[in-house]
């Protein structure tokens, strides 16, 4: 896929700083440090460490955690030393996709697969403008039918097209 | 020799059963389909179809997944030639000479040449697969836990450093993947690790949720609102060959002579780099293009529609797609992330890829080998006489495509265990994957680490137990020492190139 320019992207404040250092590497690296240290600490606290000869369930995770933290530190350090592109978050597609999939997750057990699919398609279509109502409706119905036929009948997955347990 | 023939005959009897034929067809059809479509690659598709494979037997499952993988290479070249947009990263180099050919009205010739070259490349790759895989498995049988640990280490480091823009970030992602792979019940002690009392996590993080989140959801978020522009470029390449179909595909005598040589050279490069960890179809395609340009009598023709410039890379990426299965199936070491998914699919089916696979599941191994041939013949038919279908598919707007992708994605995840928890995990990893794309961290090495992590821990513990806790065992045994040395060299190289890089390199290949 060719990445076209980020029209409509939201550039957060602090753009100047973000250009002077490699912001993505610094933030990502620091997140890795935090995750790695937490992972190692959690393993050391909750699981038996053992010895090199007889490793307990905490041995390997602890070292993996420290390794993640170390690598994250190196990445963050290098990121401070060079310039990088600013990060542009495109909020609209992000929110639309997350909302659409979450709506499916919240409705599928209560109302069944067909309403969940329809809700997903209508929510997902918010990701692009203009909102094409007719096209979205046709697509929602088509995909709901396809889902039931392919997954339900074709593969014999026992899920219910409709149900009512709000 | 007679053994090989007997095995192949058995393989074909498996592959020609109606059920296997059907799933092989589904695989290569889907592969071509998503290969043609820019913006969705084999990785996302294989993750999407992973849940489907749980309802099949192991042989049909792997045959279908493999079909997607090598089918995507055929389809990818179609988009490269007609649109100047690679459908898959491995077909990117085909744009260079394929699109100029299309502009000169030789699109039919280009499609003919790439299909032919793809078939030659695949055939050579399959021959090597059937020849070398059993031999490699014999060697693999002699490996102990130390060798396995060192080999997995090398595989992971190579896959995350060799072909990526930022090697050290690749290594970091591998280790994060290993960490995520440790979630669940510890095999040796039964201890629940990082499950936080959540019952669904006792079996570990669901591979399907992880893969679909990282590659499916994240990729859709990234593409919405961006892929629109591509449709408008299409009209310039109206197909000229409606009436004189075959004549439009005839390259002419001079070019006929150039295709076989270029294809064989491309196949050689592809076969070699396909089997190595870390390098795969994409690198093979680029290398073979460079080679053709170097040895050509008139290098100037390249970039203006040289037929070698499309035949050789297409042969290379197809050969590589076939030989990539050699280390995956015989040693259990996936060379790239697609292979890691195949490995994961097999493990879920209860089959441990490794040196015993060929002898313990001969029907799977030889059936797969035979299905490669059948699948490639299907692909030739799908890609030449039926090319019109794929061109029509290029017109599907993304505003229809992405809600459909999302629907199949969530239903796929949901259907594995009928579990909303899995869908929620998938959404969470979608967010993580999108954040990673923003910060230019690649998700592929993470998945590789996730699949191999638990195996690595097991081999490490076993090796250390046998060596009475002495870590020098990895340097004392010659084979493992070799692997460790190469790994160390790769890591130093990665550190060096990270230090030198003044600017972060964006890595934007479709997955």
Features of this protein?
heterodimer, A: about 170 residues, mainly alpha, 2 domains, flat, B: about 500 residues, two-stranded antiparallel ribbon, 2 strands
Describe the model:
Chain A contains six helices and no strands. Chain A is mainly α. In chain A, helix 2 packs antiparallel against helix 3 (59-80), helix 4 packs antiparallel against helix 5 and helix 5 (113-124) packs antiparallel against helix 6. The two termini of chain A are 41 Å apart. Chain B has one domain (2-500). In chain B, 71% of the residues lie in helices and 1% in strands. Chain B is built from 23 helices and two strands. A two-stranded antiparallel ribbon of chain B has the order 1-2. The two termini of chain B are 40 Å apart. Residues 229-238 and 503-511 of chain B have low confidence and may be disordered. At the A-B interface, helix 2, helix 3, helix 4, helix 5 and helix 6 of A face helix 8, helix 9, helix 19, helix 20 and helix 21 of B.
User: How far apart lie the N and C ends of chain B?
Assistant: 40 Å
Number of strands of chain B: 2
* Total domains of chain B: 1
Mean pLDDT across all amino acids of chain B = 85
Strand order of the largest sheet of chain B: 1-2
Number of strands of chain A: 0
Structural category of chain B is mainly alpha
Q: Strand share of the residues of chain B?
A: under 5%
Strand content of chain A: under 5%
Task: List the quaternary state of the chains.
Answer: heterodimer
Number of helices of chain B: 23
Measure the end-to-end span of chain A: 41 Å
The outline of chain B comes out as globular
Q: Please report the number of helical segments of chain A.
A: 6
